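Annex B. Sample input.
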Amino acid sequence: MAPWQWIVLAFLVVVPLTLMVDFWGRERLSSRGRPGRRPWRPQPRPAPDPDDHH
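Annex B, continued. Sample output.
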């Protein structure tokens, strides 16, 4: 293979595969494009400031 073909191969095959492995497990969508189900956790609410007189 010519050197330019190796460069094209790296961008078309190796780079996308590396990015897929890097983001594996952080998918937010299912295979059908719907949001994945996650366990619901309530967000902590900040305590009111005692010096704030509103």
